[in-house]
What we know:
The protein is mostly helical. The chain has helices at about 5-30, 40-65, 70-85, 90-100, 105-125, 145-175, 180-205, 205-230, 230-240, 245, 250-260, and strands at about 130-135, 140-145.
Amino acid sequence: MSAGLLLSSTICFAIGISSLAFAWVLLAKSEQYPENSRPALFSLVIFWTLVGLTYLPTCIRTIAAYTGNMEMDAILYFISAVPFAFVSVPLVFFIIYIITGSKKTGEYLSLIFTLLGAAYLAFLYQSGIVGPDVSEWASLFSINSDIAIHIYLVGLFVIPTSMILGLLLLIFLQKLPKRIRYRTVLPLVAISFVFDFMLTDVIAIIDVVQVFSRLFVLIGIVLAYLAYFPPMTVQEKLDIRKYAANIYTFAVSDENAELAD
């Protein structure tokens, strides 16, 4: 097989390791954040952990495809499908919490998306998959269940994506300083990048599309890192004071409080 598969597996490995490392850094610095920000912070820790757990098995299965081990390729596809099915759960909690400030509301809605994720997996495992179709650049599978596809597209993808867009619109409608826009918009754009292109990766039927989707997921992780840990030049230009201690003030109420200072 072509070295393109090895390139794809390398990108997956970079995504997996960087996502898990990012989650660990956020968790390690959780004591620096205000108490009311921690539920949303922990939801992001879970989100990035699930991204990492999705792509590490994907890295190994791509190597398996390179070596011609199709059985292992399929097994690892099913393994990576588990964290992938629940990526939207912490994302929904994160968005609901920073809009409403209600932990209970976030938990209730997250439970609904947990059930949808479980339903997706149930139909996926029951109906199975078609493939792999191994090319020079990718190992492609097709989900053999229209119900599973529709559950993910309508329930687990469209709704969270609409929430992200709605939150971005809410932010843009407010007159906020550039430093606050940086601290709110860039993380949401990064999360959207990762979330959207993860789905594109899974449903891709063209090998090049899958490789570029993984590349954009990696770019999204870099954007997220820059959002939390901006370069010094950006800090100086946007006057981000004490950024290390206050990088997680996403809630609209917190932003308004900062404007009032």
